[in-house]
Amino acid sequence: QVQLVESGGELVQAGGSLRLSCAVSGGTFSTYAMGWFRQTPGKEREFVAAINYSGGSTEYVDSVKGRFTISREYAKNTVYLQMISLKPEDTAVYYCAARTRTPRSRGIHTAQVDYDYWGQGTQVTVSS
C-alpha cells in the first residue's frame, strides 16, 4: 500500500551539508509518523530522527542534535533530513520509515518496530 523512495545521498567533505528526501506514495501521508535511521556495515540500524504525524514534535539521537533537522512537506508527501556540519562518523546508509498502523499515536517513535514501511536506503559518505 505504501512506498517510500529516498534520494539525496552523496559524497561530501567533512563540514559540508546535505539534504535527504523521502517521497511517500499510497495511503494518507498526513496520518503517518515518519523517521530516519542509518546503518553501517556490521552494526545495528540506528535511530537518527523522527517527526510525528502532525509535524508538531521531533526527536533526535544525541550525536546529531543541533546538526540535523527533520521536516515534512504535506503538499509533496515528502519528509526531509537536513544535515549540516557533517562528520566522517555520519557515513552510513540512511533509511526513511513510515508508521501507518492505527490507531494513530500522538507521540514520537524511535524504535524500528514502531514503523511499518521502509525505503530502500541512500548512501551518505563524508570524507575527511
Low-confidence stretches: none
What fraction strand?
Answer: over 45%
User: Overall 3D geometry?
Assistant: globular
Order of helices and strands: EEEEEEEEEEE
Oligomer: single chain
Mean pLDDT: 96
Rg, rounded, reads 14 Å
Helical content (DSSP H or I, runs of 4+):
under 10%
Category from helices, strands and their pairing: mainly beta
Distance between the termini: 41 Å
The total count of helices amounts to 0
Q: Report the count of strand segments.
A: 11
Specify the biggest β-sheet: 7 strands, mixed
Tags for this entry?
single chain; 128 residues; mainly beta; 7-stranded mixed sheet
Describe this entry's structure for a reader.
This protein is mainly β and 128 residues long. The chain is built from no helices and eleven strands. The chain has strands at residues 3-7, 11-13, 18-25, 33-39, 46-51, 58-60, 68-73, 78-83, 92-99, 117-118, 122-127. Strands 2, 4, 5, 6, 9, 10 and 11 form a seven-stranded mixed beta sheet that branches. A hairpin with a 6-residue loop joins β4 and β5 (46-51). The protein is globular and about 45 Å long. It starts with a strand and ends with a strand. The model has no long low-confidence stretch (mean pLDDT 96).
What is this structure, in a nutshell?
It contains no helices and 11 strands. The chain is mainly β and 128 residues long. The chain starts with a strand and ends with a strand.
Outline the secondary-structure elements.
Elements: E1 3-7, E2 11-13, E3 18-25, E4 33-39, E5 46-51, E6 58-60, E7 68-73, E8 78-83, E9 92-99, E10 117-118, E11 122-127
Parallel strand pairs: 2-11
Antiparallel strand pairs: 1-3, 3-8, 4-5, 4-9, 5-6, 7-8, 9-10, 9-11
